[in-house]
Design goal:
The chain is α/β, with parallel strands linked by helices. It has one domain: Acetylglutamate kinase-like (Carbamate kinase), CATH 3.40.1160. The protein has an eight-stranded mixed beta sheet, sandwiched between helices. α2 packs across α4, α7 runs parallel beside α9 and α8 runs antiparallel to α9. The protein is globular and about 50 Å long. It starts with 6 loop residues before the first helix and ends in a 9-residue tail after the last strand. The structure holds glutamic acid (GLU). Glutamic acid binds next to α3 and β4. Glutamic acid (GLU) binds next to α3 and β4. Pathway: Amino-acid biosynthesis; L-proline biosynthesis; L-glutamate 5-semialdehyde from L-glutamate: step 1/2.
Length: 277
């Protein structure tokens, strides 16, 4: 289902996504951990394999990875999930996560770097410039920057909120050409696909945004970090002329499919038109 969007517009946006030189990939906690909240080596390696398929095409990739609190939860017995504990869990999980990314990218002789950010860092021009410069230098070196919110220090006032917003801000801030949000559902649906067998995937979002938003608001009770924030993040990015795709992390070769303009997930068509270049 693609609502009112014309096939040609959608195809053009898919091609724009395929041609992106600088790609921001966001992976959620479910895409990295198992049911017991342990970091899932297979899922993580699969994500890294997918990213490698983009790097092999000479694209630059910036990864926004969640999973710190999730991975920490699996390592500390008896945590109760208070805010203070979640902050502490994030520090346990984050170092474990980076250890695994270092190993997994090492299979391809690739180095990684960790960047932990808060809202302050995104709002303060000087800090933001420093962040941009660091990312540029890492990319010049062929290192894969891996971003997450600095949960250890992020209190309510300085929280970015969730990584869907961080990845959207990062995409616009570092002049990304594409945002890919990987999640445990295959995109935006007309209902909750986990509960409703008739829910259909919405192939593209653009001029039909309000209709899609209505359908989604009616069909989901998710709040923090659910499909709503993924849609908001993708919408923000597409309003800046950058395509965004929400897709299923477990789909084989998902990033390769996007890089070859295959019709996977839900694509957010750049609102101010697809550029000519
Ligand atoms: N920064 C959180 C973590 O790494 C992620 C929040 C989210 O799921 O978006 O656990």
């Amino acid at each position: 289902m693609s609502e009112t969007l014309e096939d040609a517009t959608v195809a053009e946006a898919r091609q724009m996504a395929a041609d992106a030189d600088r790609v921001v990939v966001k992976a959620g906690t479910n895409s990295l951990t198992d049911e017991e909240s342990n970091l899932d080596d297979e899922k993580l390696d699969k994500l890294v394999d997918d990213i490698q398929s983009l790097l092999k095409r000479d694209k630059e990739v910036i990864l926004v990875s969640s999973g710190a609190i999730g991975a920490g939860t699996g390592r500390i017995e008896g945590s109760t999930g208070t805010v203070e504990e979640s902050q502490a869990l994030s520090t346990v999980g984050q170092s474990h996560l980076m250890h695994r990314y270092t190993e997994s990218f090492g299979r391809y002789d690739r180095k990684v770097a960790q960047l932990l950010l808060t809202q302050h860092d995104l709002e303060n021009p000087e800090r933001f410039t420093n962040f941009r410069n660091t990312v540029e230098t890492l990319l010049d070196w062929g290192v894969v920057p891996i971003l997450n919110e600095n949960d250890a220090v992020a209190t309510e006032e300085i929280r970015i909120g969730d990584n869907d917003m961080l990845s959207a801000a990062a995409t616009m801030g570092v002049d990304g050409d594409l945002l890919v949000t990987l999640t445990d559902v295959g995109g935006v649906y007309t209902g909750n696909p986990k509960e409703d067998g008739h829910a259909e995937r919405i192939e593209a979002v653009g001029a039909n945004y309000d209709t899609v938003q209505e359908i989604v608001t009616e069909s989901t009770s998710d709040e923090f970090g659910g499909i709503q924030t993924k849609i908001e993040g993708a919408r923000d990015v597409s309003e800046h002329g950058i395509p965004a795709v929400i897709a299923r992390s477990t789909e084989p070769d998902i990033l390769e499919k996007i890089a070859t303009a295959k019709p996977v997930g839900t694509i957010f068509v750049p609102i101010n038109g697809v550029s000519d270049d």
